[in-house]
Amino acid sequence: MPQPPSRFRLIGEASTAGLLFVLSPLAGYFLGKWLGEMLGLGRILAYAGALLGLVSAFVNLFRLVGRATR
Amino acid sequence: MRVEASDWLLLAPELALTASGLLLLALATLFPKAKEEFLGFLSFLSVVFTAIVLTIVAAAAPRGKGPIFGGMFVLDNFALFFKYLILLSVGLTILASIQYVGAAAYPGGEYYALLLFTGVGMLFMVSGSNLISIYVSLELMALASYVLAGYFKEEPRSMEAALKYFVLGAFSSGVLLYGLSLVYGISGRMGLTDLAQMTTTADDRQLAGLGILLVLAGLLFKIAAVPFHVWTPDVYEGSPTPIAAFFSVGPKVAAYAILARIFYVAFPKFQADWGLVVAIVAAATLIWGNLAALLQTNVKRMLAYSSIAHAGYALLGVLGFRTAYGLWGVMVYLLAYTFMNFGAFALVIFLETKGYAAETVSDFNGLARRNMPAAVTMLLFLLSLAGIPPTAGFIGKYYLFTAAMKAGYAWLAVLAVLASAVSLFYYFRIAAAMFFSEAAGARLQTSYALTAAVVVCAAGTLLIGVAPEGVLAVLKNCIPGGYLNDLPADSTSRPLPPFHCPSPFPLLTCRSGDPRVDSSSLRSSNDSRIRFAPQNDSRVRFAPQNDSRIRFAPRMKESVAQLLGITQCPNLLPASA
Question: Which of B167, B178, B210 sits opposite A61 (nearest CB)?
Answer without folding.
Answer: B167
